Amino acid sequence: MPLRRLAAPVPAPLVLHGPSGVAGAVIEEAIAAAMRKINVATALNTSYTMEGRAFLAEHGTAMDPGEFCRTRPRGYE
User: Most buried pick, 10, 12, 22, 77, via CB within 10 A?
Assistant: First the structure.
């Protein structure tokens, strides 16, 4: 991976933007090669949106976002 060559002369930490769909092994390799920040907002936003939709499907009259935020996501029982 050419990241090691890129990181050597750069005095600032490297940031990976938009790794959605990138295999975990590739991300691990990037971390080993000097990647210090990985932005994963798309994955988090997708998960949050899917949980929000599931909550509203079950509690269609809910109006307070706090109701959703106080519930435990599926799989965390």
Answer: 22
Q: List phi, psi (to 5°) of 62.
A: -60, 135
The distance from CA 20 to its chain's CA centroid, rounded to whole angstroms, is 8
Can you list the alpha helix ranges (DSSP code H) found in 1-77?
3-7, 24-32, 41-58, 65-70
Q: Are 35 and 18 in contact (CB under 8 A)?
A: no
Give the pLDDT confidence of 44-55 residue by residue, as tens digits: 788 878 888 888
| 6-51 tens-digit pLDDT | 777 878 888 887 777 788 888 888 888 888 888 877 777 888 788 8
